[in-house]
């Protein structure tokens, strides 16, 4: 295992300390590093809280800040956070307008966020994301997995919360954005969990895992390595079959790297994906290209398509100031 | 070779097309993709042009936009751009106030930018960056290599140009920022040039290359894999010995990933580096953590320290709106 770490036991803690030092203007750590929270809260705004296993950085802590999350609860690598983390985060950032949990659809996360919602003693609603079209049931999931589309939900709901939208409407909006959003990924190389010390699956030199999950879970099939165009066609075929956008739709295209894929390849994938969308009569008018929802050092990419309308374009374009996404402020 | 590409021959072209599609609000491509330029120029501002071999994305094209570069000339992977690229870029973006070239110290780049400056038929000055303390002479370099510190020069000089600083003063400023800035890197895994198809050097499972260059050039020594703290101490020892910042100095700390290193490890390195700087009586008050000056799919990191003063803090904090760096606008 070749990693820039000191000890497999302290990766999360040390990385969170680095995050907090680097972005002290935006965020700070809760007691015992149970959560990452905005430094400055906005009274009367619904508090948005997300979280999940670590190893997907910058998701979620990198999205804490103006226009996105109020807090993020990091579990150990690929391990759900515990309910006390969400309860303490809610206590810290709820200014009285209630709390919205944004939860990726994994059994541990859903169970722990549900317990936290019941035990928090305050008004809580939840949006569960399940944008991954690859498989209907996976290693840690009943139903579809929540993957890179989660950041789109966090951005759009975050912008609406910033503008004062109340809790029930935010819940409806989040569910709606999730329904308009689909993702699928491919792995070229596996990832290694520090505490395990060896790759969490194996791929031959000429193989890739089509439909891989963000923890290296199996996808649809193990296939021979293919060209960027063929990969984009396969993934977008699955996404568009399921999403069924009407001809002439505008979409947001997210090309996401899994952690070990360089930007030169992600922009090349963006070019392939855009051409295929154009051919399908769908126009990408918003783009996000980079490694935003990662799987430690896995090589590969996911493509996410989110159908836009006037409201969602406005919410996407709205100011955001977090460690990982910043624009218009 | 596992890469998201269609053909080794078209990687650069396709990736540039993806970049241009994704950031059409900021930049556009010159004829035959010879350069990437700002969509909107600012008349009367000195034009800043950089460039170099590709494979280091987002450097340089990702830094084209308000507050940084006016144009970037991408060569093929790890290959200098040719003088006609810089000449045509200068023709496209010089609005009459002259042109500043920002050039990393590699023989091919320096030669080609020098030829372009002589042949451009306009007022041109050049800043050559050489921030890498690892070695005094390298595979493609006489003198020190220009590496991740180049982006700090581009940011600070870019902010000053935006405020109307004239060409001669920008040249002086760029040389001064370069002199205040030192970097050194380490590779854990090699990179693979698409047209070559195999790793450009080999490392045993327990080895790393300390002082590696951004093309995988040899560094100071091949050493056993070490902890993040030990790596940070080694690199910062070399940097601080050379830079000799006075006690109480404020610095900008850049933890740069080489392309295949996940953010969780880079934030952990930031934590190690900050602690060591604190111990040396030097305070990091500005941070940049991410993969900004990469080496294709090389795993590893570089640390850059740049000594700040009132002017350079203001220039660093000034608004920037590029594909890869965005803040305050």
UniProtKB/TrEMBL annotation, chains A, B:
GO terms for cellular component: cytosol. The keyword Nuclease does not apply. The keyword Transferase applies. Residues 7-327 form the DhaK domain. Its EC number is 2.7.1.121. GO terms for molecular function: glycerone kinase activity; phosphoenolpyruvate-glycerone phosphotransferase activity. One of its GO terms (biological process) is glycerol catabolic process. Keywords: Kinase, Transferase. InterPro entries: DhaK_1, DhaK_dom, Dihydroxyacetone_Kinase. NCBIfam families: dhaK1. This is Dihydroxyacetone kinase subunit DhaK.
